[in-house]
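Reply to thread "Modeling small-molecule complexes from scratch"

Following up on the discussion above, here's a worked example others can learn from. I took a protein sequence and the SMILES for glutathione and predicted the complex. Inputs first:
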Amino acid sequence: MSHLKIIIGNKNYSSWSLRGWLSAHHTGLAIDEVCLKLDTPSFYSEIEKYSPARKVPTLLDGDIAVWDSAAIIDYCAKIAPEKYWWPAEKPAYAYARSIFGEMHSGFPLVRNHMPMNLKDRWQGLVFSKALQAELDRIEAIFTHARLEYGADGAFLFGAFSAVDMMFAPVVTRLETYGVTLSATARSYVDAILNYPAFQVWKSAALLESEIVEADQLPYDIKYLG
Ligand SMILES: N[C@@H](CCC(=O)N[C@@H](CS)C(=O)NCC(=O)O)C(=O)O
C-alpha cells in the first residue's frame, strides 16, 4: 500500500501545489503533508531534501519522488486506477488530454498577471486585450466541455477528474479577479469552489498569515470599480 507525502507551498498562493494536493487526495490513500513557505530562506534548503527540481508540489511515495503537477496527477492516476481520472470515450478523452496540456503549458498572461490569492477579491476590473483573449479561451473550454461531455455531473467531464485538478487554480483566479462568465462557465466555477476537497484547502489557506505577493494589480489589468 502506498504511503504518500505531498510537499506543497502556501495554500493561499501556490497554484501548482493545489493541483498536486487535489490529485493526492483523489487517490483516497493516507497522505502526510509538508507545507514549505514560498519566498523564505528555508524554502530552498527544505525543498532540496525532496525534489531535484526544487519546486512544489512534489509527491513522495515511499522513496519514489514525483515532481511537476501534471506528472503528480498522472502518477496518482496510476496508483489509484479505481478512481475516475479521465473520460473513457475517445472524443472526450482527446479533448480532456488536449485541454489538460493546453492549461499546463499555456495561458502565460493569466499565470503572470492574475496570481492565485484566495484571500483577495476584486470587482470592476478591465483586462488588456491579450489577457481577455486568454480568459475568453478558458471560458470557451469550460463551455465546450460542459455541454459536450459533462452531462453526468457538475465538472468538465461529469465527475471530478484529472482535468478539473488541472483547472482548479485558474478557477480561483476567475473568482478572485471578478471575471464575468456565461451561466455555463459560472456553474462550473461554482462546482469547483464548492468541491469538498477544495473547501478543505481553502479553509486552511484562509488561516495562513504570510504575505507573499504585493497587493497591487499588474499592468495588464485596470481597476475601474
Ligand atoms: N511546472 C511546475 C511548476 C512548479 C512551480 O513553479 N512551483 C512554484 C510554486 S507555485 C515554486 O516551487 N516556486 C519556487 C521557485 O521557483 O523558486 C509544476 O507544474 O509543478
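What I'd highlight from this example: Strands lie at 4-8, 31-35, 58-61, 64-67, 125-127, 221-223. The chain has nine helices and six strands. Questions welcome below.
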